[in-house]
Each structure stands twice: as C-alpha cells, then as structure tokens.
Write a structure and sequence with these properties.
The protein is about 45% helix and about 15% strand. It is an alpha/beta fold and about 450 residues long. β9 and β10 form a beta hairpin.
Length: about 450
C-alpha cells in the first residue's frame, strides 16, 4: 500500500495478523456516496487481505458524540445518544445495501470515555498536555514532528486552518483533549464534567483494541489535517512508538467541482443512489478510478460502469446456469487471475482489476454462447468467483417473486402451444421489470438484472 506519511509503498506479507483502523462516520445524518467511496475502498482492502491468507483485525469507529449531533438532536427534541444510535443503525443498513463486509469491531466513542481519560492523564504526566479552566489541551510544540503527515510546519498548518478560539490556550495551534461543559451529555473527569475532543477518540480506541502500533490507518483525504496529524501527535507522545506502519487516504468524490459534503448540501444519500443506479453499478463506479485521485462525478462514467457491471453480471449468471466441471487446467483463466491479482496487489489498483474482470467475463460469455462453458475447466469458475468476491459484488439473493415465476410458467405453456407472440410479450414485460429470461435445455433461467433507473443527479436531468 502507498503510505501517505513516507510517500513510499509498504509491503505486507501473509500469513500474519493485519491490524487496521479506519475512521468512520460522525452519525448525525444519513451517509452519502462520498462516504461510500471510502467505505468501498477499505472493503476491497479487507476482502483482498482475507483472500491472501491474512488474519485481519479491522476496526471502524462511529463518532457518536459531537457538537453537530447535539445540535441536530436538540432541534429534533431527541436525546443526543439515542439520536446518534439511530444513525448508526441507518449507516449499517447502507453498508448492507452495498454488500460491505462488516469490520471485526465497530466501536462507539461513548463506549471508550474511560480509555480516553487514561490517555489524557498520561499525556499530562508526560508534559504534552495541560489543564486550563475550559478543559485540557495538547501542547503541539512539545511534539517536534508535528506536521510530518501533511508535510507542513505548524505555522503553515495554522495559517489555513480553523483554530478553536479559547483565551486559555497557550498556543493557537493547541487542540482540545477534553472540554468542560455544563449542558448536553456530560461525563465526570478529574478536570471537570465535560466531553472528549474529537481527535482523542480514535487514539483511545486504537490503543484499547489494537495496541500501540497498527499496520494500516485509513480514512478520507480530508482527515490528513487536522485529525490524523493530531492523532499521530497525541498517540506517539503517549507511547513513544509510531502509530501506524502505513497511512492510507481515499481522495474526495466531487460533484460539480465541489467536495461532496453535508455542509455544502450537495450530497446523494447511499440509499437513494442504490435505488436509482443499483448497488453493483454504484460499487463499480466508485472503484473505477484510483483511490488516491479525486473522482469527479460524471453521468458518462456512471453509464460506463453500468455497462461494465452488466457484462460481469451476465458472466456470473452464465456460471450459475452452466457451472464448469472439467478437470483440465485453464491457462486463460490463470492468466486473467494473475493480471487481476497483480492489479489488486499494486496499491489496490481497482480500475485495472475491474477491467480485467470485465475481459474475463467476456471470455466466459464466449464460452457460454459456444455452449462450451459447462465442459470447461473448473478453474474458470473458481477464479471468476474469487475475483467477483474480492471486488465485493453480489447477485440478488433468493428466487424471483411468485408472480414472476407464474408468468414464466405461463410463457412456457404458450411456447408449447406455438403462441410465440404472446410468449414474447410476457418476456418483454418481465424484462421491463428487471427480469431477463434465458431458455436452457431443461428449464428457463430467470435472471434478476440491475437497472439504471435514472441518471438524474440532485434533481437535475443528465
């Protein structure tokens, strides 16, 4: 993986345990497709690690206490913690829509207040933090390497950042570890009732569950500064050890040249995108460019991703209908898999991995059309499904609804009676509803296909 801190690749070799932490959502609203891009990149990384034989301990947190949560909950007349938990459940629902494999743990910040307080106390004792009437602050100047992740000096970083105003701070660059409050959710502490600062949450959860140094720390590129810079400062000041071997950052999804963000009001919710475009098309699109490059939302790109998914989808159904059973080796399948594995192992090159799977799918389609798929090597299916799973694809579960099956049976009878135009009308009606019929020697296969329902974005026609 490419390491943001060193700028060099970091290699990991199985078998061993891989420890990974990814900064998750602040749960005050529904997740949007900008969040989905980050989720999907780390989902593929998670799946790839498992496929290569790693034992992985993967944490992705929920920030469930924050000023935005408190403000939204107050306006809704709801307890902030209950409000946050509602959006935790909504986020988990969205992850399931996208077939995102659950991390090992998804801890909440509010479950780790004691761990945060222990870390804060340790920083005070080590001379890296100080107590003032408004709370506890980290003294940035006590960590000489501050700025090493974002490649800037403290003064440069502060010039372009929003600095918390507090007359008690010794230095404008210092950031809060604990804030004293008299309203909202409060926890007792040695420094007064209050709430933790944002940055200390992740450091505490990592230290509690993964140890002092982890293998991979990930998140969106917008977290490099100040969040991850501050995490490094407080964690490494506390332990004296590097926080992570590799820092992996996913660049932003932009809409009309602006970062997709709730604060800008230009978001497309994950659940709405899945309804409009389908989960596999959305996954293909968000993985269609290198994760280290910004992705400008494009209708043309979305349509192309849908076309690519339909090719993959068709091959998947062909393999379900005609599972290869031959015992001979398939050099073609091995070549496709090697190309895929080289791509996915080269700093998670998902665009090249998807392109390889599309070409492999076309190869399978040719075998199917020539009626050679069932007798081909079992390796064709084995390699295809491995690639399919690493990229996180999924065919719709379960059989079609009963009314669809009844129409399929009626079509069979019509065909047996020679009423082909009536049978074709049923086929066309089912296709319009998202069901594709493929006549096999012994039955009719019903394929639930993904449709691009609309290419509208934020209410504007494409």
């Amino acid at each position: 993986m490419s390491d943001t801190l060193s700028g060099a690749p970091v290699e990991f070799t199985a078998p061993r345990e891989l420890r990974m932490y990814v900064c998750g959502l602040t749960v005050y609203d529904y997740a949007h497709i900008g969040h989905a891009r980050t989720m999907l990149v780390f989902d593929v990384l998670h799946r790839m690690a498992i496929s290569k034989g790693f034992s992985i301990r993967y944490l992705q947190n929920f920030t469930d206490i924050d000023d935005k949560i408190i403000d939204r909950a107050s306006k809704a007349g709801v307890d902030p913690l209950k409000f946050a938990e509602r959006f935790v459940e909504e986020a988990l629902h969205d992850m399931d829509l996208l077939n995102i494999r659950r991390p090992t743990l998804m801890p909440r910040a509010t479950q780790h207040i004691s761990a945060m307080q222990r870390l804060i106390q340790g920083l005070i004792e080590r001379g890296h933090a100080y107590v003032v009437p408004s709370g506890v602050y980290f003294s940035v100047r006590t960590f000489p390497e501050y700025g090493k992740l974002s490649k800037k000096r403290v003064d440069q970083l502060m010039a372009g950042a929003r600095v918390e105003p507090d007359p008690h701070k010794r230095d404008p660059a210092d950031f809060a570890l604990w804030k004293i409050y008299d309203t909202g959710p409060l926890w007792d502490s040695p420094w007064g009732k209050g709430r933790p600062g944002w940055h200390i949450e992740c450091s505490a959860m990592i230290n509690e569950h993964l140890g002092e140094t982890i293998d991979i720390h990930g998140g969106g590129a917008d977290l490099v500064f100040p969040h991850h810079e501050n995490e490094i400062a407080q964690s490494e000041s506390y332990t004296g050890k590097p926080l992570a071997r590799a820092w992996v950052h996913v660049e932003m999804l932009n809409l009309r040249s602006e970062k997709m963000a709730k604060s800008l009001g230009n978001v497309i919710r994950i659940r709405d995108a899945v309804e409009m475009w389908g989960p596999n098309t959305l996954r293909t699109y968000l993985l269609s460019s290198n994760y280290r490059s910004p992705l400008e939302f494009s209708v043309d790109g979305l349509v192309k991703s849908h076309e690519n998914w339909r090719i993959i989808e068709s091959a998947a159904y062909d393999l379900v209908d005609y599972p290869p059973s031959g015992d001979i080796e398939s050099q073609d399948a091995r070549n496709y898999f090697k190309e895929f594995d080289d791509a996915i192992s080269a700093d998670l090159d998902t665009p090249r991995a998807i392109s390889t799977l599309v070409r492999f799918s076309r190869f399978i389609g040719r075998l199917s059309s020539e009626r050679r798929l069932g007798s081909s090597s079992k390796e064709v299916g084995e390699y295809f499904w491995t690639m399919f799973d690493v990229l996180g694809y999924r065919l719709p579960p379960g059989p079609p609804p009963d009314d669809v099956l009844m129409l399929v049976e009626r079509r069979r009878k019509l065909r047996s009676e020679g009423r082909f135009s009536d049978a074709d009308a049923i086929r066309d009606d089912l296709r319009a509803r998202g069901y594709e019929l493929v006549d096999l020697p012994d039955r009719t296969s019903v394929r639930i296909v993904e449709r691009l329902r609309t290419t509208s974005v934020l209410g504007s026609p494409a």
